[in-house]
């Protein structure tokens, strides 16, 4: 019964589009990143007449074009090179004349990005999402003016609008981006050659991922971090272990240091730093300085404030219940609103808005959003950190298991790291899972599911896991939280 009604709605939508194109859209999405394009596809699938306005010329936003995907392509390639360079001999594999063809690396990265962004254009066509390549701005709450990339102008009318305009790198005062010497992540992904020396300001997620890429390829990398630990938001024990591993790999960390200033010398740069707690100044020189001290919401030229949309003190679009902006029919999601700046968080919010607009119960569980750092080993986390639980006064139990005691990790010769499981002391309910180790980014999915379904650590511990797999380490960490592990 429901299926038949859904089909009729869909057919009607297609008919509407071809016959009454001057009719308003049900939904116009501004921004074609993971938040925006996913929302547009879902809305169209649910029968809404949907358009997406994207100025970049390609779909996929920061994530596909200059974020998640190109960085993961470079991380994968550089990891393979380093593995061959450092580890193959010990495994009995002989490789002669190993080297890096940087132009080919960049081409491969571009091919991967190109195929994915074109794939989304295909999904728009398949789902009948109208795609406008251009800059969208509000002229009223129901009218979007578009400066099309081909120079033409068009105005479209809509019942609802979703702002999904994302974010951009935060510039550092006195070290303006030229994307040649002083670079953001965008420049770091597209360097003309492998640098000899790289200084990274900010030991967060971008900092450690890009530091890993270039360190593996032979660059001398120094990371300057203001705080006393890297990737500040993650569990402290994991952060400390992670920093030790990266240091052993060859990345130099100057934690607890602040940047006083710097100079772009044209073909190199100078940065002056000083310990936060006081001490001697240090001058660092490098071919490039990567500034990765965070990203800021992007609302430039959108004219959102002119229709009554409000920004908070960090420039993010203020939202209330159900992603509403306070202006009737105008919603916002993704990096441009509060919350972790992650592609999958933006996607979940996009789906929720499409569902809310079609009378369904769109919902995002912010307690079950994983975070992954794609270094080697990877770091993956979900739920509360030990510091958060202590601060909130929650009585918790803790279990952990090292990859050193996991047979698959041994067989793969990847034994660094551990899994830490935090549970409610009384009920055994999973509160947080934190992994530093091989394949952590894939393994965390099981913990996310556990948290989503309100599982206890005993539930995961009693679940049969294939042998030999890395995921047995999660089972054992849960056994350790709940009672005792077997293999330790
Ligand atoms: P965006 O992806 O930023 O998309 C917004 C789009 O809106 C842009 O394409 C922009 O051109 C367009 N736009 C803006 N204003 C207008 C306008 N007025 N008219 C038309 N179009 C407009 N996240 C992860 O989850 N995993 C990762 O591994 C990961 N790696 C990253 C690596 C790097 C180097 C960077 C920089 C980010 C990474 N992120 C990662 C973060 C992720 O890219 C963002 O969280 C995600 O892209 C946010 O999606 P969004 O749709 O909110 O915004
Ligand atoms: P971030 O917030 O992760 O890290 C910024 C770091 O810079 C922090 O450790 C902070 O303490 C430090 N810092 C700030 N000011 C400083 C200063 N003046 N001197 C020295 N250090 C300073 O931000 P980052 O790395 O720029 O990434 C931006 C966003 O992109 C993140 O929110 C992240 O979620 C997303 N991203 C996600 C990835 C993933 O999921 N794998 C990969 C890359 C980015």
Automatic annotation (TrEMBL):
Q: What cofactor does this one take?
A: FAD
Residue ranges of the FAD/NAD(P)-binding domain?
25-350
What Gene Ontology cellular-component terms does the record carry? mitochondrion; oxoglutarate dehydrogenase complex
Q: What is its EC number?
A: 1.8.1.4
Which residue ranges does the record assign to the Pyridine nucleotide-disulphide oxidoreductase dimerisation domain? 369-477
**Any idea which UniProt keywords this protein has?**
Disulfide bond, FAD, Flavoprotein, NAD, Oxidoreductase, Redox-active center
Q: Do the record's keywords include Flavoprotein? A: yes
Q: What class of enzyme is it?
A: oxidoreductase
Q: How is the cofactor bound?
A: Binds 1 FAD per subunit.
Q: Which reaction does it catalyse?
A: N(6)-[(R)-dihydrolipoyl]-L-lysyl-[protein] + NAD(+) = N(6)-[(R)-lipoyl]-L-lysyl-[protein] + NADH + H(+)
* GO MF, any single term: dihydrolipoyl dehydrogenase (NADH) activity
One Pfam family assigned to this protein is Pyr_redox_dim
Which GO BP terms apply?
Answer: 2-oxoglutarate metabolic process
Q: Supply any other comment.
A: The active site is a redox-active disulfide bond.
* Similarity comment: family membership: Belongs to the class-I pyridine nucleotide-disulfide oxidoreductase family.
The identity of this protein, by name, is Dihydrolipoyl dehydrogenase
């Amino acid at each position: 019964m429901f299926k038949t009604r859904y089909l009729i709605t869909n057919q009607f939508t297609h008919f509407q589009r071809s016959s009454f194109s001057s009719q308003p859209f049900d939904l116009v999405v501004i921004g074609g990143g993971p938040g925006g394009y996913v929302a547009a596809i879902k809305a169209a699938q649910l029968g809404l007449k949907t358009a997406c306005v994207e100025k970049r010329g390609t779909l996929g936003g920061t994530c596909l074009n200059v974020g998640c995907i190109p960085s993961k392509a470079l991380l994968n390639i550089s990891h393979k090179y380093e593995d061959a360079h450092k580890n193959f001999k010990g495994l009995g594999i002989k490789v002669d004349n190993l080297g890096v063809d940087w132009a080919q690396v960049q081409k491969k990265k571009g091919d991967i990005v190109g195929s994915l962004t074109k794939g989304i254009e295909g999904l728009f066509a398949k789902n009948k999402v109208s795609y406008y390549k251009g800059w969208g701005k509000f002229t009223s709450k129901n009218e979007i003016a578009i400066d099309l990339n081909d120079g033409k102008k068009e105005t479209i009318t809509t019942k609802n609008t979703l702002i999904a305009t994302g974010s951009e790198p935060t510039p550092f005062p006195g070290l303006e981006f030229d994307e040649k010497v002083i670079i953001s992540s965008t420049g770091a992904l597209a360097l003309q050659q492998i640098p000899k020396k790289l200084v990274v300001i900010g030991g967060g997620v971008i900092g450690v991922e890009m530091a890993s890429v270039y360190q593996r390829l032979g660059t001398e990398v120094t990371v300057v971090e203001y705080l006393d630990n890297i990737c500040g938001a993650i569990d402290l024990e994991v952060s400390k272990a992670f920093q030790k591993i990266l240091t052993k790999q060859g990345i130099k960390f100057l934690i607890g240091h602040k940047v006083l200033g710097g100079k772009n010398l044209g073909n190199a740069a100078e940065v002056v730093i000083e310990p936060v707690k006081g001490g001697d100044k240090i001058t660092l020189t490098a071919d490039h300085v990567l500034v990765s001290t965070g990203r800021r919401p992007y609302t430039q030229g959108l004219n959102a404030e002119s229709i009554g949309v409000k920004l908070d003190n960090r420039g993010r679009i203020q939202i209330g219940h159900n992603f509403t902006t306070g202006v009737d029919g105008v919603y916002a999601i993704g990096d441009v609103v509060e919350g972790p700046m992650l592609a999958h968080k933006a996607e979940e919010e996009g789906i929720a808005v499409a569902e809310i607009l079609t009378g369904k119960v769109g919902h995002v569980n912010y307690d079950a959003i994983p975070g992954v750092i794609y270094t080697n080993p990877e770091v993956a986390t979900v739920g509360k950190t030990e510091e958060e639980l202590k601060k909130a006064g929650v009585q918790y139990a803790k279990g952990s298991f090292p990859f050193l005691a996991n047979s698959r990790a041994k067989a793969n010769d990847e034994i660094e790291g551990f899994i830490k499981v935090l549970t409610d002391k009384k009920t055994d309910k999973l509160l947080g899972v934190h992994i530093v180790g091989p394949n952590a980014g894939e393994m965390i999915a099981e913990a996310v599911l556990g948290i989503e379904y309100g599982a206890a650590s005993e539930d995961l511990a009693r679940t049969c896991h294939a042998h030999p797999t890395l995921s047995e380490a999660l089972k054992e960490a849960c056994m350790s939280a709940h009672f005792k592990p077997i293999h330790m």
